[in-house]
Amino acid sequence: MPASSPALSINLDALAANYRFFQSLAHRAQTAGVVKADGYGLGAEAVATALLNAGCQTFFVARVEEGAALRAFLDKIHADAGIYIFGGVLPGEEEAFLSARLKPVLNSIPQIEIWGAAARRQGRKLPAALHVDTGMTRFGLDAAGRRRLAQAPDLMAPIDVTYLMSHLACASDPTHPQNSVQLENFRAARALQPHAPASLSASAGAMLGNAYVFDLIRPGIGLYGAGPMDAPDARLKTVVTATAPIIQIRNAEAGAAVGYGATHTLARASRIAIVNVGYADGYLRAASNAAKVWLKGAEAPVAGRVSMDLIAIDVTDFAENALAPGEHVELFGPNMPVEDVAAASGSITYELFTSLGRRYARHYRYNASAWVPPGREDL
Ligand SMILES: *Cc1c(COP(=O)(O)O)cnc(C)c1O
């Protein structure tokens, strides 16, 4: 990547520290690593390497292709770990699951039937997690599905339920009454598989207290350093720093309009820096006239609309000789919290991370004595 590219610094030591933080919340329970969407956009192989080194034995991804790619990587480095697919098994995917030793999260009666039939063809029980819906109305068996299972125990006979799981809809708001409602529903649903270990919580849920931990927690966003309650959390270390270089600094008269749509008119004679990042790099267009960047120890506001490849920032308050083209501004990172940029953009940290795109020069930071896979000496 040329020096004019935006840059991502990804701190795998911080990621490992965040994993250990979740382990400390989990006590004796296990801590999985959620690495869907290419490790929240940060590189699933790099993230998985750091998590494996930190002791992680269970991964979750969303789709079967993600699981197959992760399995190929783990096999290449002779590492073993359980890989679960949140989306479950769809018709025609059974072979891909079996050959990559993937475990579906079974979300519905049809998925249970597909996996049960695959088990019968294999002549052995097949492992899977069973998802019950406790109030999110997305994945998982509803009340009718649970009644069906209770009446037809044969459906589950060929399946080894390694976890009974559910997912909280409102855990990022600890005061939301739905949290305790879902907790009670989950406790009641355990009667369906009384011997199966249980897993309810992602990052935010794990922070709601011991009652929400059960046997396995499934953090994603918190591992990547973003506060699960939508605000910075001092217990988590910053993993991702995104920067982009100033490519031009210009003067503009009072009354001049900045950017597409002329949405920002300068109230005073100003200096505007043009920065090499835009919505094609996941710097969301909704950040127009709203977000701030950090440079030289201070904030500078985005002026006007975010373009595909560029933003304009107002640097009038910076000393004239302090800034020069080539200088990188911090889009988010230790000085400009990603939670604040997300909020200013009407979004969430998850969307910012997974939208980063391919035009960043990526630098991984990792403790020199950590084991890295052959061919990944860049970590
Ligand atoms: C994405 C996801 C997680 C991880 O959630 P975070 O909020 O990123 O910690 C856990 N469980 C399920 C079912 C998910 O879809």
Question: How would you explain this protein's 3D organization?
Answer:
- The structure is a single chain.
- The protein is of the alpha/beta class and 379 residues long.
- The chain is built from eleven helices and 19 strands.
- It has helices at residues 12-26, 36-40, 44-53, 64-76, 94-99, 109-122, 143-151, 178-189, 203-206, 338-344, 349-354; strands at 7-11, 30-31, 33-34, 58-61, 82-85, 103-106, 126-131, 159-165, 198-199, 216-217, 240-252, 257-258, 264-265, 270-275, 292-295, 298-301, 311-314, 328-332, 361-365.
- The strands form five sheets. It has a seven-stranded parallel β-sheet. Strands 1, 11, 14, 17, 18 and 19 form a six-stranded mixed β-sheet that branches. Strands 2-10 form a two-stranded parallel sheet.
- Helix 1 crosses helix 3.
- The longest helix is centred in the first third of the chain and has 15 residues, at 12-26.
- Pyridoxal-5'-phosphate is lined by residues 34, 36, 86, 167, 202-204, 218-222, 228.
Termini distance? 17 Å
Strand residue content: 15-25%
User: What small ligands are held by the chains?
Assistant: pyridoxal-5'-phosphate
Going by helix content, strand content and strand pairing, the class is: alpha/beta
Radius of gyration, in Å, reads: 24 Å
Tell me the strand order in the biggest sheet: 3-4-5-6-7-8-9
- Mean pLDDT rating: 97
Question: Low-confidence spans: pLDDT under 50, at least 5 residues?
Answer: none
